Request: fold
Amino acid sequence: MPPYAFDGKAQRIEGAATSLDAKPLRTGRTYRDTLKKDGKVYYRLDLDTRRNAYVSVVAVPKPGGRVAYGDGFKVGIQDNSGADCGYQDVDFGSAKYARPLVGYARRTVDPDAYSCQKPGAYYVLVERDSAPESTPDDWELEIRYVTEPLLTQAGPRRSRGLAVGHARAAVRGPAEAPGRRRVPGGRLLREGEWRADLRPGQTLFYRVPVDWGQQLFAGAELGSGTEGDLVSNALTLSLANPALGFVDTSTVGYDGRPATVALDPLRPVAHENRTSYDTATNGMRFAGWYYLSATLSPELAAQYGDKPVPLTLRVNVRGTPRKAPAYDAAPGRSR
Reply:
């Protein structure tokens, strides 16, 4: 089974070695490219001052490859002077096994900022960082470019309290918990417990709708089996926001006994979360589909065999949906 289902409508694009040769990305489209070990590629954006811009990258290594602590990639947006407008570094962390990584860069329109505020050419830079002992295979990339309108008037300038936003239209809040059901990857999850089978080295992705003012709680449990030696960081649970920006991740070891992992409590979705320097808080800036992924370490195959391990996903969305911010245009549409 492939580690990631790429968008079938994605078009091929070749990233340039220099910014002056960069090919343009068009809003609302999906692209495919490859990234060599320790390579870097540029793409071009033509931006105005009426919308915020987000470029996401899903990097997909070949299954079974070797990765080291700190291996990963950086995606950033720069202006034509080389100043960083916004970037994200994502890596495999302590869970040192190949799996899809998700991150995004952003350029936001801010009258109080000194850089990245003029209309014109901007550049997306994607850089891969790999240790010498890591597998040198190319990584496949899926690239998306979306925009977000500004507010009709300035909103709150600071994130308020823990009592914890979007490039696409907001969705309604989750319905009542449906109870425990078996569900394959790639499906919509609402509140409740969901049962899946996860093989060593496999990643499953799910969509969870979270509206403005709602707070997402997510966790996972590996079922019991034959007890054996502990495999560290056996299960990785990660969350990305509607613009496919990294929000949070957590891992747990497995020794054949039940093992549970949960994301740290996240702030309710709010436009003002974007003013926070904390990555998890900053990422909860949009209403829409949040993307939950679960990956099982390939190391489990040597200890417990290459067979599926029962997995339970627990999803809880709290809070009454609030009114969306007063955008000056429909989210997800360019003018």
The longest helix spans residues 279-283. The domain at 1-149 is CATH 2.60.120.380 (Jelly Rolls). The first strand starts at residue 11 and ends at 12.
